[in-house]
Amino acid sequence: MSAFTSEDELDWRRIDVAGIVTHAGIASVRETELEDCLRWLAAEKYDVARLDVAGGFREIRRQLGEMFSWSAQFGYQLDDGSEVPPNLDALRDGFGFAASPSERRVLSLGRMESLWNLDPNWAAGFLAIAAEYSRIQLAVGRRFLTVVALPEGSSLVGARFESLVIPYFGWDARVTETVAG
């Protein structure tokens, strides 16, 4: 089964199409437009998961542990109370969501610039894992998109991680009105 079932769904102006197909599952939006973008994606039948990465690694561990049902997968809590970043190899092994009836999922990363400033190597590794997961999901006919919220003028736009980049802002409400209309 194809993740995009018609030519209409492959409108390159859509943030999901551009993010998943062109930018390896990573899209960025201005922080001020994040909620509008997530509402639009939800209306397009995407399940939205939110991760606020500005709270430090202890909070990131807690949120990821819940999001990925870590204890059920591995028999221990990812949240060990420390401020140490989760091991990226372990995170790659546990990265995944419960099945979704819509087969469309968005991971929203709020305040990504804070995480990047805290530990750019870990942040880049996390984005690389999310991009890999997007490719895996696309290969089996599902859509997975990571939406990175950044402030206007962020130096992260165009920042490289592995061989990928955070693309220029992909959300434009005027386009969604045209697409939806």
What does this structure look like?
With 181 residues, this protein is an alpha/beta fold. It has one domain (8-180): Barstar-like (Barnase, Chain D, 2-Layer Sandwich). Helix content is 42%, strand content 17%. The chain contains eight helices and six strands, in the order H-E-H-E-H-H-H-E-H-H-E-E-E-H. It has helices spanning 15-22, 34-43, 57-67, 70-74, 88-94, 112-118, 120-139, 173-180, and strands spanning 26-30, 47-52, 104-110, 143-150, 160-161, 164-165. A four-stranded parallel sheet has the order 1-4-3-2, with helices on both faces. A two-stranded antiparallel sheet has the order 5-6. Strand 5 (160-161) and strand 6 (164-165) form a beta hairpin. Helix 6 crosses helix 7. It is globular. It starts with 14 loop residues before the first helix and ends with a helix. The mean pLDDT is 90.
Question: Major sheet, described briefly?
Answer: 4 strands, parallel
Please estimate the helix content.
40-55%
- The number of distinct helices, counting runs of at least 4 residues, comes to 8
The oligomeric state is single chain
Mean pLDDT: 90
What's the arrangement of secondary structure elements?
Layout: H1 15-22, E1 26-30, H2 34-43, E2 47-52, H3 57-67, H4 70-74, H5 88-94, E3 104-110, H6 112-118, H7 120-139, E4 143-150, E5 160-161, E6 164-165, H8 173-180
